[in-house]
Design a protein that fits this description.
By secondary structure, this protein is of the alpha+beta class. It is built from 7 helices and 7 strands, in the order αβααββββαβαβαα. A 4-stranded antiparallel β-sheet has the order 1-2-3-4. Helix 2 runs antiparallel to helix 3.
């Protein structure tokens, strides 16, 4: 029922696929963190034994979708996270590639919304999307399309008056402004 309700309001434009190299990146990154920490060295053998299964399940649960109205993202095994960011709330999609990510041929997209971008916190981060630059451009293009439509509809929703109806209103506004100027000039 939820899917049919969503499909009436919005339709899928593209599903973001995640690069399988993200699995290796996650395994190596977590192993490096464990090697660096004292407690982690003790946990490293368990990670090397069970980590691959965990990473595979995590990768299988990743989902990202661009629809006509929003960006949807799901992840998690034990703790599931589902995020929906309306396209008209997206301020920017920051594209990042550090040396570690570039080594694995991956990149990172950080979705920033109006409320969180000022604080330097991302609303959603997507690591390992295949062809991230193209995905970013598609999201921004769809966002622009949505915001342009809403701007056009809001300007079209203004009441239409003939010039003959606006003239008395403008004359009254002009006389009010002249009165204000006269009072300011007196003081």
């Amino acid at each position: 029922m939820e899917q049919t309700t969503k499909s009436r309001r919005e339709s899928q434009i593209i599903e973001g696929k995640f690069d399988p190299r993200l699995k290796t990146y996650t395994m190596v990154g977590a192993s490096l963190v464990l090697v660096i920490t004292v407690v982690g060295i003790v946990l490293l053998p368990f990670w090397l034994i069970f980590g691959k299964r965990y990473v595979n399940r995590y990768f299988d649960n990743l989902f990202c979708e661009l629809t006509t109205r929003a960006l949807h993202f799901k992840k998690g095994i034990w703790f599931h996270t589902e995020r929906t960011v309306p396209l008209d709330k997206i301020q920017d999609l920051t594209f990042k590639e550090g040396p570690f990510l570039r080594y694995f041929g991956l990149s990172y997209l950080m979705v920033e919304t109006a409320g969180n971008s000022a604080q330097g916190v991302s609303d959603m981060s997507l690591t390992g999307i295949i062809d991230a630059r193209k995905f970013r451009e598609m999201v921004l293009d769809q966002r622009d399309l949505i915001t342009d439509k809403s701007n056009q509809s809001s300007s079209q929703s203004l009441p239409k008056h003939g010039d003959h109806e606006l003239i008395p209103i403008l004359q009254k506004m002009q006389s009010t402004l002249e009165n204000i100027e006269a009072k300011l000039g007196e003081s």
